[in-house]
Amino acid sequence: MARLTVSGLTKTFGAFRALDDVSLDVADGEFVAILGPSGCGKTTLLRQVAGFDQPDAGSIAIGDTVVSTRERAMPPEERRIGIVFQSYALWPHMSVADNVAYGLTVAGVREPERSKRVDAALSLVELAGFAARRPSQLSGGQRQRVALARCLVTEPSLVLLDEPLANLDVHLRAAMEREFARFHERAGTTMVYITHDQAEAMALADRIAVMDKGRVLQFAAPSVLYREPADATVAGFIGEGMVVPATVAAVAGGTCDVDLFGHRATMRCSARTTPGPALVCLRASALSVAPEGTGALRMRVTGTIYQGGHFRVEGMIGADPGVALHFTVPEPCALASGSLVDLAVSDGWVIPGRAS
Ligand SMILES: Nc1ncnc2c1ncn2[C@@H]1O[C@H](COP(=O)(O)OP(=O)(O)OP(=O)(O)O)[C@@H](O)[C@H]1O
Ligand SMILES: [Mg+2]
Question: How many whole angstroms separate alpha carbon 313 and alpha carbon 326?
Fold first, then answer.
């Protein structure tokens, strides 16, 4: 187990800045997810931490040891890092036990110590009875667990996982997510888990670093990202938040009065919020059809989508072209395209910083 400290890390490929001043502090035993769209720099970050690549600026420390700077890099094999990739990369001609033992054999660990550690690693991923099988005789999820056991058997101080579940179907993914969570509880290893699936990140991580275009936009607990996004990109990316222009009127201790297209609503805000133009983040769960004549937010319905038990209602507010909103209503749904509906707004978050 080890703490991971990434400070001001920058990596360029030619003129392209793949990592731009990235800083992260992962506590000993913490489970951190790196979440962001394709091409935002997740794998590039992981490669610097693993030591496959060297940064142009900044530093990486594992525990108290600085392992990467522009000038110096500790070789990957000395970093005591375990890595699990999206493709399991198991040796097809070797048994499960031999696959897991491979790293120990290379490291010169002899029998009976080697078998003892392989057995313990297979038990940890609940594959004790599968030692003699070949990878081809396992399900996708079981293969992924072998890859995890192979990574853990070398007792890494830090485990890096790069989209380890991306190849699996929805049900297997859910089962494997539980495996990872249980494994982390048992082993307490520091884990950095890369994904572009926010539900996966939310389900697993103590904290999530949201990345975009080589930068960390926000690094916080899942519920903080959802309830208090730091900027409009995080608000839109996490939980499909709707970012809407508004005017903050009066601010009082963590809440404020907001004018939303002529409608008054009470919203949460940071202590630094001041009156004036702002962007607010609305969630579908905070919108509902208002009782007649309550002077609520008027939306023009543009479409409804059946989602099993409820409809997602999409529409626009404000002058043409307006701002897109969506919310859900239980079936049956009487709202047709083109109709007007008054919405009640029960909650919202004023995004810090001025609306530009
Ligand atoms: N060796 C390289 N040479 C040039 N450009 C690179 C190199 N490696 C990565 N890049 C670029 O850096 C950016 C970040 O790539 P990276 O692989 O880190 O993305 P990612 O966030 O892991 O995406 P994905 O979710 O698709 O795996 C991309 O635009 C990619 O094209
Ligand atoms: Mg990647």
Answer: 5
